[in-house]
């Protein structure tokens, strides 16, 4: 019988969940159509540029999902289900102190790590964990009720966890078991039609709609699935043209004349979905819930710590100038970027602002190579390729959460926070939460060592900007 590798399983998992979500949220299908149109048009107009951040096949199939869970036990199970498809936790995002809307969760994203795996299918899932212990959001009583409710529910069946364990152990699953794994995973992430306890849900919603979405129901679901586009501004216009109201802005860096940095995202509110509620008198009634939405993103180059701190400064400078002048944010941001951001690959490398891989062209330059990285690039001994940003941005994530919330919720800022970090998360889920900077830096270094070796040079013999 044929064997399905973790890589194949991931591709099929992405497709299975995308099909499921399409049946649940029809506007998502419209979004996929428009994203596809935008990508084809962009590719026709700019064939070279279209492949800068990954092959067109990769970009077309690319999705990120978002899910939310209630306890570290549930998160550890999610970690195992995704490890089965070659996806591992990368980065720790704390959204509890996000401004202006704090969200009572900490998050990570499960994704492939290796370049070759990312190229085959980069499916990633932003996964948020509720923090019921955080007193700024939840009183002791609510914490206890939440923890008990969550401990009682079963999100993932024994069988699914067993299959996931087998795939982790064996590097994939026999065909029949792979199909079963996909079916059970899809079922676990489908919107349930079980009645929702009205009083309990409302009690949580008064505190935070995210808390209600996570701990107010007995199952979990895909919150959104996000396709990638090559021109997000064009997508925004076309969606509005189809009568779908987008959120006010595109989160992240602005559109400008220079290179695409990191990640730009925008979203639209999904329509209300019918849900059955269990009332306190024992009756059931039809109701509506509006917790899911559509999101789309465009990806750019990964930034080094230097580039990232400049990015954060440019964002705050933009906030400050916008507050002072009241001018449109996109316009202010463009101005800030033009004045502060390196505007081409060479400058990005020279300022150690962004990550690239280095390659020695087959038809290299003639003569003796110079002992300096930038001079080698200038002289054609080496070629640089940008590394695409595979992760998320906490500020954008909080903005995406917030723009789709039904109410502001209640936060008691006088209470101390509960410490949560990557260490804490790693310990509680039994898998190391990686830092994406280490991954990008290693990739840059390995590519440079290999390229230089093919020119008979040692990496220690040349000077470079970092
Ligand atoms: C996750 C929000 C964050 C993103 O793309 O930054 C996110 C959620 O709503 O559960 O998906
Ligand atoms: Ni998202």
Write a structural description.
- The chain is α+β, with helices and mostly antiparallel strands.
- It has 3 domains: 3-300 and 389-434, Uncharacterised protein PF07063, DUF1338 (2,3-Dihydroxybiphenyl 1,2-Dioxygenase, domain 1); 303-344, no CATH class; 355-387 and 435-466, no CATH class.
- It is built from 18 helices and 14 strands.
- Strands 3-4-5-2-8 form a 5-stranded mixed sheet.
- Helix 1 packs across helix 2, helix 1 (6-24) packs parallel to helix 8 (175-189) and helix 4 (72-83) packs across helix 7 (158-170).
- It is globular.
- The mean pLDDT is 91.
- The site of nickel (II) ion has 7 residues, from strand 2 and strand 8.
Outline of the structure:
This protein has 466 residues and is of the alpha+beta class. The protein has helices at 6-24, 26-45, 56-61, 72-83, 115-120, 140-152, 158-170, 175-189, 198-207, 209-215, 232-241, 305-325, 329-340, 345-350, 373-378, 394-403, 422-429, 436-454, and strands spanning 3-5, 63-69, 88-94, 105-111, 124-130, 172-174, 196-197, 224-227, 263-269, 273-278, 284-289, 293-299, 356-359, 383-386. It has a 5-stranded mixed β-sheet with strand order 3-4-5-2-8. The chain has a 3-stranded mixed β-sheet with strand order 7-10-11.
Strand content: 15-25%
The whole-angstrom Rg is: 23 Å
Tally of individual domains: 3
**Extended strand count:** 14
Looking at this protein, list some descriptive labels.
five-stranded mixed β-sheet, 18 helices, globular, binds 2-oxoadipic acid, 2,3-Dihydroxybiphenyl 1,2-Dioxygenase, domain 1, 466 residues, alpha+beta, 16% strand
